[in-house]
Amino acid sequence: MTSRKEQREVTRQRVLSAAEQLFTAHGYDATTIRDIAARAGVSVGTVMAVGDKATILVELFDRRISALHETRAKRDAPRRTAPSPGRLADDVLALFEPFLALFAGDPELARHYAAALVTGKHRAGVFNELGAALRREIGDVLIRAGFTPEAAAGGATAIHLAYLGALFVGAGAGGADLSGPVEDLVSVVRFITDSNNAAEGNSNAAEGNS
Asked: Which CA distances in Å does 88 have to 25, 50, 69?
């Protein structure tokens, strides 16, 4: 026999699925709570028990981001080698490609997602567990390239914040063209990776002169 908790979860998933279908087909603004309720075959109160539109959108986006992390983790598990010489920045930037594509693929939803996060009313994985996962991935690449653990942690934090900034600026611009914010992200990544290389070079030179 299905428990009441399991029934609630099935209903919750039905609401989320209905909202995702409507957001994608008709847009966030054009979709109402009543529309979601009708598509899911539940009451308006049942939808509101799951969350308002912004809460539902944040969860849907976090699910997509989480799925991208999981897909990459499975695909890249065997590949734990050091980045190719001269390609560290490219290897770091490659981590962001699927996420940037996600946001560019539906700029209206991305804009509303960013707006929901700015209010501070919604718990978002991109600031918590999903953000921590991405920072670990960035840090792993930096460590394999020769960064110390401390430098890798600092670099990963700075790069992750630059990535979030690119997403928010891109969403605020209201278009699918993220080229400007992405160029800024590229500049930050290259600055951090080049700075570490320069620091290593100066350290080696100092050791050679001592």
From this structure: 39, 43, 20
